[in-house]
Amino acid sequence: MKLKKFGMALSSSALAFSLLTSAVAAQENSNGQAAETSSVAQTVTKQELIAKFKTLFPELDFLTTGEAYMSSGNNNFLGEERLSYQLYLNTTKGGKSYSSSVGFVGEGLELESFSYNSPNEVDALFPPKVTNDEAKEIAKSFVKKFLDEKEYQLEETPYYFNVKLTEPIRYSFTFKQLKGQVPISDQLAQVTVLGNGEVAGYYKFSNQSKGETFDEVEVIWDKDKVLEQIKENLAVDLQYAVNWDYRTEERSVDLVYTPRLASVHALTGQWETVKGFKDAPPEKTKVEPIVTEPLAPRDADITSDKAKKFAEKILKAPSSDGKLAIEGIDVRENYFGKEIISIQYMYYTDRGGSGSSLEFDKKTGDLLNYSEVSDRSWYPMKEKPDWSHAISEQQAQEAAIEYLKEFMPSRLHLYAKPTVEGTFEEMFGTYFLAFPRIENGLTVIGDQISVAINADGTLNSLTADYNEFSNWPDPEKAVGEEQALEKYKDSLSVELNYMRKGDAKHYDLVYAPKFSNEYNYTIDALTGEWKKEIGMRSEVTVSHPTAEKELNYLISANILEVKDGKSFNGDAAVSRGEALRIIMNSLTYFYEGRFGRQEEVKQTFENIDPKHPLYPAIEHALSIGLINADQPKFDVDAPVTREELAVWYVKVLGLEKAAEHTDLYKVNFDDKDQITKEFAGYVAIANAKGLVKAEDNQFNPKQEVSYAELAVSTIRLAHQLADRNVRMFY
User: Fold this and answer.
1) Is residue 408 part of a domain?
2) Which residue from 76, 131, 211, 260 has the fewest beta carbons nearer than 10 Å?
3) Shared-domain flag, residues 23 and 156
4) What 8-state DSSP symbol labels residue 320?
């Protein structure tokens, strides 16, 4: 569900990156020498891959006339080696650059991935030339060409992901492989279609291996019966949930209801758990604090020197010939705004070195972050080790608690023993346990201590996510459980799927619960409504006689924030601060976070401190020269005028130097005398470019800009940037 929720939209650039980061065993030269894997005796030449590409993509044959490179390797899944090859093509046509990356697997050179980059992406900007439904048909045709369409079905779940106005519209579609008309949950194919109708990306997620087995679809439980069974046993839990706004790094806490439910085995009617299927439905776990009384801090007066000495006691080389070296000590604030002491270290041997870091809370001396350094191979072993000698999960939990009392005592009374079963990582023999935060007797989603314990009881890793909030929502103000429960029941359905646990080779036939609300499974306990996640596209819509499409697109992409579509007035004047925020979010990628920075946070304007909601946008606009710091204060609330918007747009286009020569421009507007003299060049260029245009030979330089005008003109500006190949990645 997380993959769905965050939209695994593989853009052409993301696909290219994933291909480039694959394990490469050998790369041939441009003369076409053969690439041969180190463990499987098979030779494939670049010419063979090019020939395969021409067969699959005859319409892109021109790509093979330019540069071509290949790489090869093999990966190991469930002890089985799988050959893989990548072909990279680059060429120029009509003075424009084109490129493609293609991945093949197996002896038959099956197409695994494809990405295509062309200068025609400019045609895919908003407004798109093809609709979502039209793009869906293009994706279906692509799948039909490369896969057996009878064995794959389109998942109708929409994928939302935000891009800037200078980036092309991308539609992403996922197809699930079928077995006997039943979807296999982890066998997927994904197609990305641009707004101009071009297929920009394809990837087939396949974890298939030899010897896989599947439950037979013979006598299975009735779907309606299973749905009724799940509804009868459905329960809800009242919890706190920490929300992290990745755009600003700000955290908040909500009171939510979450469902307590599980998938049901279609043959036996048993309930799915972390460790298999059981007869009993999921039950609420008792919340038991690790300790009932606060423990004394480990070291309330810790210094960098003390932290270094303590780190040297904790750390030990993974091999007898290893030597520990403390590489650096840094005192800074972490992402939670907490002052920490960070120790960077390395282990050196005659074979090289490896290292990591650990962190201490400067106020309490608690160890906040530690991970064992080992010499484990990047690739899984061919055979699983025998862990019959490993300690039990209960013993691992007891060991974890002892480590927490020793290394992280000061806040243990705020955390509970695990409320969900831990997992055992078979390949390396490690238990992973989560100790949830508790507040007002409720567990806190997104705030936990994660501990990993090795099979011999030693500490593998420890990480704490502690958030400080002054205002925790009152549980007494939550709507009743029955109201939330009925909302879940009304939205609930089940789907038949083949699923498997981890790296098992057997697929179980299960009924998986699904809610009609695709975006989130949590309900706001204070309102009783579905909880909207940060970053999800806004569903608010507005109406406007001339700029409705543009306004709604900006709203859906969270560029323009509108809470109530009915009361929104698109003809209202937009303030300078809001206009800058919209422009920055429309055209640039920039870091909005205010906390956790190692450098000193600066404040340029007296009235715009780091806590001001417009601080990131104002400071970024200043850093790229869009505005000047010629005044001690910046009036964010004053309406932006047409001539001021013209100045900003011309600066974005990089034409500021040309605009400064006001004597070169002959401005013949009837109201030319109202234009600020030094802005005449900017106004002339903005009008000529069609960004801020005069009407009836009147430019109206002092007129306030409306939201509708800003939306339309910003989209025009994005097209200008794309046409000029100006990328504002700051």
Assistant:
1) no
2) 211
3) yes
4) T
**Same domain? 203 vs 235:** no
Phi/psi at 203 (5° precision)? -150, 135
Tokens matching residue 430: 């490690």
pLDDT digits (tens, 9 = 90+) for 361-407: 999 999 999 988 764 443 445 566 788 899 999 999 999 999 999 99
Residue 119 in 3-state DSSP?
helix
Tokens read off for 668: 């013949």
Same domain, 638 and 710: yes
C-alpha distances in Å from residue 33, one per residue of 74, 104, 474, 671: 18, 18, 69, 70
Q: What are phi and psi of 126, to 5 degrees?
A: -65, 135
What is the total count of domains within the chain? 4
Asked if 255 and 331 sit in the same domain, the reply is no
- Residue 29: its pLDDT value, please? 39
Domain end marker among 365, 389, 407: 365
Bridging pattern class, strands 442-454 and 235-245: parallel
DSSP string of 41-62, one letter each residue: --EE-HHHHHHHHHHH-GGGGG
pTM for this structure? 0.79
DSSP state of 122: G
Instruction: Evaluate whether 255 touches 263 at the Cβ level (below 8 Å).
Output: no
Long-range contacts, 383-392 (Cβ 8 Å, 24+): 383/79, 384/426, 384/427, 385/427, 385/429, 387/424, 387/426, 387/429, 387/455, 389/455, 390/424, 390/429, 390/455, 390/456, 391/453, 391/455, 391/456, 391/457
Is 377 among the domain residues? Answer: no
CA distance 407 to 8: 38
Look at phi and psi of residue 547 and say left if phi exceeds 0, alpha if psi is from -120 to 50, else beta: alpha
CB 257 within 8 A of CB 484: yes
For residues 200 and 230, membership in a common domain is answered with no
Q: Which domain holds residue 100?
A: 2-208
Looking at the structure, tell me whether residues 39 and 165 fall in a common domain.
yes
**34 and 76 together in one domain:** yes
The DSSP secondary structure of 606-618, one letter per residue, reads TT--TTSTTHHHH
Say if residue 582 is in the same domain as residue 518: no
Confidence of residue 76 (pLDDT cuts 50, 70, 90): low
Domain-ending residue, one of 346, 365, 384: 365
Note whether residue 384 is domain-resident.
Answer: no
pLDDT one-digit tens code per residue, 435-481: 999 999 999 999 999 999 999 999 999 999 888 888 999 999 999 99
DSSP string, 248-281: TTEEEEEEEEEEE---EETTT-PEEETTEEESSP
Q: CA-CA-CA-CA torsion for 18, 19, 25, 29, nearest 10 degrees? A: -140
**DSSP assigned state of 28:** -
Calculate the CA 609 to chain-centre distance.
29
Two tokens, residue 25? 């065993």
> Which candidate, 96, 114, 113, 120, places its Cα nearest to that of 168?
120
CB 171 within 8 A of CB 191: no
User: What single-letter amino acid sits at 616?
Assistant: P
